[in-house]
Each structure stands twice: as structure tokens, then as C-alpha cells.
Design a protein that fits this description.
It is built from 16 helices and 13 strands. The chain is an alpha+beta fold and about 425 residues long. It has helices at about 5-15, 20-25, 50-55, 65-75, 85-95, 100-125, 135-150, 155-180, 190-210, 220-230, 230-245, 245-260, 270-275, 275-290, 320-325, 370-385, and strands at about 1-5, 30-35, 40-45, 60-65, 130, 295-300, 305, 310, 315-320, 385-390, 400-405, 405-410, 415-420. The protein has a six-stranded mixed beta sheet with strand order 1-2-3-9-6-4. Bound molecules: protoporphyrin IX containing FE.
Length: about 425
């Protein structure tokens, strides 16, 4: 296992370029590497078999870090995302029925209705007024999540407030909790005030959802709103830019989406999963730009991983982004090629199990995966079959980046001129 050097230098470089630093640590496409950040020992795991061992087989020993959950809990309360041990189990069990297959089927017409309302809104803006598509998709995802899971349909005003708040929490709030610089949040500095305002907005909206018939506790709703909206929105943004760069795929999915999405109100989940090329494009976008590009565990006790000793307190990092570009099992990993998912949109051809991990693995994997896939396929289907769009990004500028937290996102707002048929 590689060992990478000076802990202060590492800290400074990871703050500058997280993905660049971690791919450097792996060097030569290695499977596992050790490094230090300030006082903390880290192990980066980049091999499907080791990932399975860590996230599935040894999930009792390799757990969500207490300090990280406490930091995040200050922003979003105590729910599925921040709870550990028995409290987490109770959260997961309580939320699980919302994501059952039967419930999922009933959400499809609701998702289609929300998409229709957003299309109407964009049509009203007119093609000459470029929209901030990321904020619009975040608002749409919020209205979908709230109305499907909790039976509350927020207004577009609430959704816009939500979108602005979630960005502050995900960027500024997470930056603090990830780096540990979250002391004295009560001092009325502009940044603190912004974070506190965003926290109150999220709380107010979760309370509204809870009052409108949601049987779930407010903090579970806060967790779901926080975890379940930005990632689908960002993935669609990545898909839009990828399709713009690959017009042959845009033409192909435009045809396949037309029939499928026209009848989406009546479509079953099975039909939705057979959206073919459309589903493939979503899967390939998630491969190249997995919205949760890295996540972390900590060793609660001494363990071994693939024979490597891991001392208690060591932090383990898993990066779907690096895993999905591992040349050992991905052919031309940098190339956008939805054909990889031709036979099964959630499993790539020839790639080992746990080699494709946009939704994580093991007991703490994404509870919202099926909802996310259904939502993204319907939104993207509507965009390609009903709209023409042109993004306004500066040629040559890298449109995507990883900022603040382990979320991959656009490095600046993506403005889009959109014409809705
Ligand atoms: C493109 C969309 C999405 C992506 C890429 C994504 C990715 C992930 C990943 C990688 C994890 C595991 C993190 C870890 O192991 O530490 C996760 C967890 C989670 N996701 Fe998602 N997610 C998406 C959409 C959603 C949606 C739509 C919801 C809910 C409506 C949701 C709710 C959650 C929750 C609650 C957890 C924590 C589960 C637990 O700790 O038991 N996610 N997600």
C-alpha cells in the first residue's frame, strides 16, 4: 500500500484540488493508499473487492464518523443522514416504506405533473431570458421530493428559497463541517448569518411538510430534503452538458424519449426502467460525474482490509469518481459512452460488482436510488423530447468541479436558453 507524505502539505493541496490530490495519492491507478491530513491518518480505497469488504462485510466496524455527523447535525438536525447505531436503524426503518416498490409506482404521475409545471414556467420565461438551470432543477427536485414522499406541494417561491438555502448549506455549511472550522457559529459574521438563515429556511420548509400530513419527524424530512435534491439536479446539469458535447446521443435519446415520456403519466416503473438509451445516458452521466464523488467512514476498532491492517480511528475514503475512471476495468474511462450500459442501466458491461457505485453500497447506501433514477429519467426525457436548449458556458472553461464538500457540482452557474415546445 502506498504511503503519501507530509500531512500539512497534503492538507493544503487537498484544499486546493480535492480530486487532483486524491488521484495523485493513488498514483499508477493503485487500489489502496495511505496518507495523512494534519493529525489524521487516511486510507483511500479504490478496488471493488476491498470496497465490498469495507462497506458491506465490515460495516459494523467501519462507520460514519461521529464528529462529522455532529457537525452536520448542527445544520440539519438528527435524522437518517446524521444518526448512528440504533438511532440510525430506527430512522432507516421508519423511512423505508416511502421508498418501497409499490410506493414508487404511485409517484410516477406526481413526478410527471411536477415536470410539466416546470416546463410551463420555463416556457413563460421565453427563449431570450436564460435561466439558471441548476437552481431551477433544484427547485423542481424539491417539489418532486416533497410532494411524492410527504404529500406537500411547495409553491415556486418556497422552492426558490429552498434552492438558495440548500446551496449555502451544501457549500458554506459543509465546508465548515468538513474542515472542522465551525467554532463560534453564533458570532454574527456575514458567513455565519448566511448559514443560520439557510438553516432556518430548511427547518421552516421541513416543518411545513410535516404539518401537511407527512407522518415523518421534522428532522427526517430535513435529512431527506438535504440529501435528495441537489444530486439529481446536478446530475441532470452534467447530462445536459455531456449531451451538448455528444449530439449523436442527443438525437438518439430524443427519439426514444418521445414515445416513452409522452405516456409517462401512465407508465409503470418497469416501463420507466426500459427507457433504453435515456436510462443509459443517465447511468453514464452518473459514472463520469457521480454527484456524491466521495464518502467517508472511520474505523471504530482495529480491522484488516484485504490483509492490510487498519488502526482504530483511521478514516477511510471511497471515491466513486476515481473508481469509475479506473483503467483496470473501464475501457477508455474518460469517454462518454452510454453503450456501456446497453444491457442493464445499473450495471456496466464487464465491470466487476462494486466497480460502479454512484449510490454507494452496504447498509448506508442511498435510500433514494430508485426515486432518483425515476426522477432523473423523466426530467431528462422531458427536456430532450420537449425542449431545445443552449448552455452558455465559456468555451474551454471547465464547467464542473468539486467544491467544499464531497459533492461534485458545477463550478459556476449554468445559464441556459431554453425553448419549450
Ligand atoms: C443522483 C442522485 C443521487 C446520488 C448520486 C446519491 C448518492 C448517494 C450516496 C453515494 C450515498 C451513500 C453515502 C455514504 O455511503 O456515506 C447516499 C446516501 C443517501 N441518500 Fe442519496 N443519492 C442521490 C439521490 C437521493 C435521493 C433522491 C434521496 C431521497 C429522496 C437520497 C437520500 C439519501 C439518504 C437519506 C442517504 C443516507 C442513507 C443512510 O445513511 O442510511 N439520495 N446517496
Amino acid at each position: 500500500m502506498l504511503n503519501s507524505g507530509n500531512s500539512l502539505r497534503n492538507y493544503l493541496s487537498i484544499r486546493k484540488d480535492q480530486i487532483g490530490f486524491l488521484s495523485g495519492v493513488l498514483r499508477d491507478g493503485g487500489d489502496i493508499a495511505r496518507f495523512r491530513l494534519l493529525a489524521f491518518p487516511y486510507v483511500l480505497v479504490n478496488d471493488p473487492a476491498l470496497i465490498r469488504e469495507a462497506l458491506v462485510d465490515k460495516s459494523e466496524s467501519l462507520v460514519i464518523r461521529g464528529g462529522a455527523s455532529a457537525g452536520l447535525a448542527r445544520l440539519i438536525g438528527h435524522g437518517i443522514l446524521t444518526n448512528r447505531g440504533g438511532n440510525w436503524r430506527a430512522s432507516r426503518t421508519g423511512l423505508q416504506p416511502l421508498f418501497h416498490q409499490a410506493a414508487m409506482k404511485s409517484y410516477i404521475p406526481t413526478i410527471a405533473a411536477r415536470v410539466e409545471e416546470s416546463l410551463e414556467r420555463w416556457r413563460a420565461f421565453g427563449v431570450d431570458s436564460p435561466i439558471d438551470i441548476q437552481q431551477e432543477l433544484l427547485a423542481l427536485s424539491f417539489r418532486i421530493t416533497s410532494s411524492t414522499l410527504f404529500g406537500w406541494l411547495p409553491s415556486f417561491e418556497d422552492a426558490a428559497e429552498f434552492a438558495a438555502a440548500i446551496r449555502v448549506l451544501q457549500l458554506d455549511g459543509m465546508e465548515r463541517y468538513m474542515t472542522g472550522f465551525d467554532f463560534a457559529p453564533w458570532i454574527p459574521l456575514p458567513l455565519n448569518r448566511r448559514i443560520l438563515r439557510a438553516r432556518s429556511t430548511l427547518l421552516r420548509l421541513a416543518q411545513s411538510a410535516a404539518e401537511h400530513g407527512g407522518a415523518q419527524p421534522v428532522d427526517e424530512i430535513r435529512s431527506i430534503f438535504f440529501a435528495g435534491t441537489e444530486s439529481p439536479a446536478n446530475t441532470i446539469c452534467f447530462a445536459l452538458t455531456l449531451l451538448e458535447e455528444n449530439p449523436q446521443w442527443l438525437a438518439q435519446i430524443r427519439d426514444s424519449a418521445r414515445g416513452a415520456v409522452g405516456a409517462v403519466g401512465a407508465a409503470s416503473l418497469d416501463e420507466l426502467e426500459r427507457f433504453g438509451p435515456l436510462a443509459q445516458v443517465v447511468s453514464e452521466s452518473l459514472r463520469l460525474f457521480p454527484a456524491g464523488w466521495a464518502f467517508e467512514r472511520v474505523a471504530a476498532e482495529d480491522v484488516r482490509l484485504g490483509g492490510h491492517p487498519i488502526r482504530r480511528g483511521t478514516r477511510l475514503l471511497f471515491s466513486p469518481f476515481l473508481l469509475h475512471r479506473n483503467r483496470r476495468f473501464w475501457r477508455e474511462p474518460e469517454r462518454f459512452d452510454p453503450e456501456r450500459f446497453a444491457r442493464e442501466p445499473t450495471v456496466a458491461e464487464g465491470v466487476p460488482k462494486y466497480g460502479y457505485l454512484p449510490f454507494g453500497a452496504g447498509p448506508r447506501s442511498c435510500i433514494g436510488m430508485r426515486l432518483a433514477l425515476a426522477e432523473m429519467r423523466i426530467i431528462l426525457g422531458a427536456l430532450v423530447s420537449r425542449c431545445r436548449w443552449r448552455t452558455q458556458h465559456i468555451p474551454g472553461e471547465k464547467p464542473l468541479g468539486a467544491e467544499g464538500s464531497f459533492k461534485i457540482r458545477l463550478s459556476r452557474p449554468l445559464r441556459v436558453q431554453i425553448e419549450v415546445a
